[in-house]
Amino acid sequence: MVINLVIAFANLRPWWKGSRDLKLLVPWGEGLLLGAFGTMCVGGILGWLTGCAPTVTNGAGDHSLKAVTGQGNSSPLAHGALQGLTPNGAIVVFLGTVAFCLIWKSAGKADKKRMTGGLVNGSCLCVTAGIASLLNWLPGLVNQGGDQIVSAFNGLGGLL
């Protein structure tokens, strides 16, 4: 968890100390959203990557805590989950992943770092009980978006 706090601090501090223009948080937010999307996936590459992120960052964080303070993380956080992704919702997650990759390709070095940090934060924080509880509305929104896309291609029945 400590690594995720460091990543969030590294992205939020320059924004807070600077102009506080929300546009500066967009690269981090893009990664954060894709990480949250990934935690809804039960399989596939995105589900696997977001499943590995908490294990890696928790191990690195525990090692860092021991190296700096002599104490490790004694109590793991309670786990939660964003569940309920439907096949239509998976369309939205797929399109979001493609958009992230296209934006990543054209982004500068600093924005790529922010996007990666957001992706790690979203993957790790959205599997904690507190954040998953706060975002329990997200799978429903994603599924509704997928339903609207399918309806649009099936004759605009859901859009009118």
Describe the structure in your own words.
The protein is mainly alpha-helical. It has seven helices and no strands. Helix 3 crosses helix 5 (109-125).
What distinguishing features does this structure have?
7 helices; 160 residues; mainly alpha
Low-confidence stretches: none
Q: Based on DSSP secondary structure assignment, what is the total number of beta strands? A: 0
Shape: globular
Q: How large a portion of the residues is in β-strands, by DSSP E?
A: under 5%
Largest sheet entry? none
Query: What's the rounded overall pLDDT mean?
Result: 91
Q: How would you summarize the topology of this molecule?
A:
Layout: H1 2-17, H2 26-40, H3 44-69, H4 87-106, H5 109-125, H6 129-134, H7 138-153
Helix pairs in contact: 1-5, 2-3, 2-4, 2-5, 3-5, 4-7
Tell me briefly what this model is:
By secondary structure, the protein is mostly helical. It has helices spanning 2-17, 26-40, 44-69, 87-106, 109-125, 129-134, 138-153. It has one domain (2-153).
